[in-house]
Design a protein that fits this description.
57% of the residues lie in helices and 8% in strands. The chain is an alpha+beta fold. The protein folds into 2 domains: 4-75, Dna Ligase, domain 1 (2-Layer Sandwich); 94-185. It has a 4-stranded antiparallel β-sheet with strand order 2-1-3-4. Strand 3 (32-34) and strand 4 form a beta hairpin. 20% of the residues are buried.
Length: 186
């Protein structure tokens, strides 16, 4: 059950109060209230959990909540693992994105490997979103982290292969020039 703050008639913030305690605090429909999870203060009559304060009914949030929980349990499909299964946290890709950022930079000082930083930023968001209960945003951050980590990896691999091919071609060129020089001297 949420705990609410409210602004009294004198403009002072008071709280925290349960919905039943607010009944005794003489709040009016236009009184501004706030609880954790709300983006901004709202009028009391705009908050669904507090609608019983002005409905004139004897239904309290506890009995309403119990009824809602019973209805939700009846509506929820039963699975072999029980009534509720939790989704696992998506892969963060944090270690991979750090390696894709650091190792190519050390090996060939490629500024392109810094694209891995974008992967690090998304990877850091995965756990944060998951802990807030926003699984969709967590999964999206995981997909973005994977995408940018793979882009950074393939750019780094391509850059390293380009350097290896350039070194091989340099040795072939130097060897062929040296071979031509020996032919001209004979």
């Amino acid at each position: 059950m949420n705990r609410y703050f409210y602004i009294d008639a004198e403009g002072k913030q008071k709280g925290t109060f349960s919905p039943n305690e607010l009944r005794h605090e003489n709040v009016k429909p236009e009184t501004l209230v706030w609880t954790q999870g709300m983006e901004q203060w709202k009028r009391t009559d705009e908050v669904a959990e507090l609608s019983f304060l002005f409905a004139g009914s004897s239904v309290t949030p506890e009995t309403e909540q119990t009824g809602q929980m019973q209805q939700a349990q009846q509506d929820r499909p039963v699975t072999p693992y029980g009534p509720q299964t939790l989704q696992p946290m998506p892969k963060t890709w944090l270690v991979e994105s750090i390696l894709v950022t650091i190792l190519p930079f050390i090996l060939c000082s490629s500024f392109l490997s810094l694209l891995g930083i974008i992967g690090i930023v998304y990877a850091a968001q995965v756990e944060s979103f998951f802990n807030r209960g926003d699984y969709a945003a967590s999964a999206e951050a995981s997909r973005s982290a994977a995408k940018w980590t793979k882009i950074g990896l393939w750019i780094a691999v391509g850059w390293i292969l380009l350097i290896v091919v350039a070194i091989i071609l340099l040795f072939v060129f130097v060897g062929s020039v040296a071979g031509i020089g020996e032919l001209l001297n004979t």
